[in-house]
Amino acid sequence: MQKIYKTIKEASGPLVVVENTEGIKYEELVEFELQDGSIKRGRVLEAQEHKAIVQVFEDIRGMNLRDSKAKFLGKTMTLGVSLDMLGRIFDGAGKPKDKGPEIIAEKYLDINGAPLNPYCREYPNDFIQTGISTIDGLNTLVRGQKLPIFSGAGLPHSALAAQIARQAKVLGEEKGGQKFAVVFAAMGITFEESEFFISEFKKANSLQNSVLFVNLANDPVIERITLPRLALTTAEFLAFEKGLHVLVILTDMTNYAEALREVSAARKEVPGRRGYPGYLYTDLSTLYERAGRIKGKEGSITQIPILTMPEDDITHPIPDLSGYITEGQIILSRDLHNKGFAPPVDVLPSLSRLKDKGIGEGKTREDHSGVLNQLFAFYARGREVRELALILGESALNEVDRAYLKFTDEFENKFVNQGNETNRSIIETLGLGWELISLLPKSEMKRLKEEHIARYLKA
To answer: Which family is annotated (predicted)?
Structure first.
């Protein structure tokens, strides 16, 4: 039964307090009828015995509290989902943003999802090719994994996100078989960034297999909190009910966390680290843990959250907590970006904790593990030699150290700096890896099997 109240007593930021309420439930949807007859929607953020705190989705400036009414709808927020969502663009409230028709929903799903029984989860173990050597070759993305990208202000994470969305695919896919879909959720971005993402998807003709959710910086802050949940609900429908392999890209999670902090401050909650709410970890986990595979289901959800580290500080609460929940991180380097490298992935601190599960014979190639470990070892040693050369001068280096220095320069110029338009297959990436390995003597190749050296190393 819908209840209507005229007891709106207080408004603060996006929050409205309704008093003398009865039987109100957490997350229940609310409609506010303003004095001019317009309708604004919200949801119950806190339900006390005789008071409800409501989070309003739209701007409430000019709202006359005395003449407005609050109607509690007795249901939670749902999203109408359908295969027709592919190729469409929506806003943070789930409404079409591309001037297309409304979606005719096959069903309505709660945007908060349902927690998965860990016993029903299937371990991620299938390789996803992004076409980017620093990811495919060294920090492999696995189907069902959550692998964030840690960036900084001004770094080209938008270009990297668009490149991954255009190029990502599951190997072994046959024409007419299961499709690969992308759900792209952008929070608090500028109009220019929005136009860039849309043009990138259209340019590669990948929009038809994608669903875009866009919240601009001047859109209501509450949409930034609901938007990733709308995107993940769409992904769950496509993956677990339609059998698609879905890649979810969430950018920028820092804007999402800032929205949480703004709402928390409006609620006068006791702040945690750097003013963020104490439940930030729990809230982020409700998003990140919606990635994975389910036993008996064909589809899967792989997640790439992107966040900008304030002042490039990896110990900041947002990257720090994200690192605890997710399975590794891809880190972008400001130094490499300043040198003009694209994408500027810093290989050494980057990590994919599940990379060993998605590589090897039958998945990529039998020599992948050895090439990966050898490139890491050579590059780490080469960086040390480069620092030594700055202090002592290159003339003080021996012949092997000079080979390491040459390897490091070639590795960065050829392997890392592949450009935002180059789509390399895993075979091309491994071939380039062997080409770089050949710059050093065989006596240094301690992480490769003899049979792999004999088969793949060019004389």
So the answer is: Belongs to the ATPase alpha/beta chains family.
